[in-house]
What does this fold into?
Amino acid sequence: MPHPSLDNTPPLVLIVDDELFMRELLGETLREGGFRTKTVASGKEALAFVAETTPDLILLDLIMPEMDGFATCAALRQLPQSRHTPIMAVTGADDTISIHHAFDVGVTDFVTKQIKGELLVYRILYMLRSSSTLQELIRSEERLTIYREAMECLPIGVTMTDAEGRITYMNPAEAEMHGFNRDELLHRSAGSLGPGRLRKKILPSEMEELGVWSRESTNLRKNGDEFPVQLSSICVRNGQGDALGMVTVCEDITERKEAEKQIEHLAFYDTLTGLPNRWMFQDRLNQAIALAERDQSRFALFFLDLDRFKDINDTLGHQHGDKLLEAVAQRLQETMRKADTFARLGGDEFTLILTGLEGHTGAAMAARRLLELFDAPFIIEGRPVRSSASVGVAIYPDDGTCVDDLLRNADTAMYHAKGHGGRSYRFFSREMHEEIVEKISLEGELRRALEKEEFELYYQPQFDLANGQLVGCEALVRWQHPERGLIMPGEFIPLLEETGLILPLGDWVLKTACQQAKEWLDAGFASCRMAVNISSAQFRKAGFLDELDAVLSVTGLPPSLLELELTESLVMERSDKSRELLAGIRERGIQLSIDDFGTGYSSLSYLKNFPIQRIKIDRSFITDVVHSQDDAAIVEAIILMARSLGLKVIAEGVETVDQIDFLRHRQCEEVQGYYFSKPLQADALFRLVLPSGRLAAVQNIAISS
It folds into this structure.
């Protein structure tokens, strides 16, 4: 059925044909299709009818005597009431010239007299629908003229873009805001209004999800100055849902941002000292907790209170007291790291969040430094004023895992310090006591373990990825505890380093690993180097080179089969001294590698300046290298960088065939990981390796490559 008109009456079709048969046939067909019809036999009759009544569509025979359809159509198009009325030409002629002539004089569509009735009905329905759309378009253009005039007067910017993001309209306010004339911006990409770092093309499909996309951003003036803006964008679509472009409203919010900064400063910073206030501090403390939870790290919260501040206020006055608080804040700020958060909670109470600490020892050193800042007098209005402080320390997560617990416990510890005469610091006692007892106990067990030789070495093999040949092993220490069984190094190495016991253990590891390497050499593993991790304490110990000479001499291991693995941070500490030590190691023919590469400095400069032969890609990048574009890019960059410097690359933590394929295609030379073998005792590894020096799994991989 046809679509009804606005008054719910069927559309009226005027049939113009000189043949009675065709008029009757077409009339009956259209009436059956639900249309109203009016038939006339000539062009003149058609013009007369249209002058009185405007039909919804005209069905016009082109071949008629006297006034043919071409002339009739041309005349109809001159009448205001039929200028846009759809005209469908009906004729027996199907030659191209007639068709072109018909369209030239204003015919909307063209059908032959042989067309089936049902098809004709649907053609007319389509034309009526198109006519309705045209009428709506005309009305839309009239409304658009009104809207355009309104937008021209708006004080905020309005920009319209096409589906490709090119500017098709911009009101004067928008152009003036950016310092341009409108003509300079038309047909340019709307992205050019913003700085390059923020340019991102939004696809129409993305706009469907956003609806009205409101956001704050930064735009660019003609002179290059950036300024903050509030943007609201919406995708404009046609009736079929196709994206036509985008309308964006832009407001310069420079003044608003400046006001917000002032309000924020008043809300989150102490007006006297300029330090973060309680609200800002609590937010920073929440952030520190979240980061520490994510990274499984620790940080210290210090609660500092001035001793006898009330006496200073009472004797010198509140103005002097405020000046002292300002001086204290300035002195503390000057000595703190930028990463640390120092705040004034109120009165003479200050707090400090200190990250990157290694346990209580680092926190104690920081607390002592805080107290030492009060050794020199403060000069207040030309006169020296002496003051001291009491400091309480709480450690996350030992002494609390939320803001309230940490603040309360640090405050409690501060009052304990103040209760012991002030000018001192105290740790929160309950958890600290338990931890100290546990650490003392563990330290005693470690000392006994060294005496009773409870430590043993496991070895994880390393292979040439090209041919599957065993090229080395990494020596890894384990603690065979008499009661707890096998303990991994992560549980005891930190305490060994803190207590200095890492030195005797490191000496034992180095000597034992070299002895084992010599045994394997004698057994036929001619090219199997032994990789030994060296701690910072060992590397910095006086006489380290002499110790290396002694170990190699006693064990008989060729220096070329010993490789020392050093961390990036160890090498970069006191780089001049490190360079001298590394040069001495290389002069002896010992190989050097950087362990966990990519997690520290990862600098080309130190790789160029230090005599390194090999870098080991940290397992954290290998784990997701097949699925993470970021990890893949980092690994590929490391391999390319190493190759350009003539260094070999070994990847650790390899566990899957996909990882192996990725590394082989990037020409990574060597690998180790659980795919090939977990760390094994020396005898077990010897039995596992084929006489050819290959594991079966690696041999298969080498063959398949």
Remarks:
- The first strand starts at residue 12 and ends at 16.
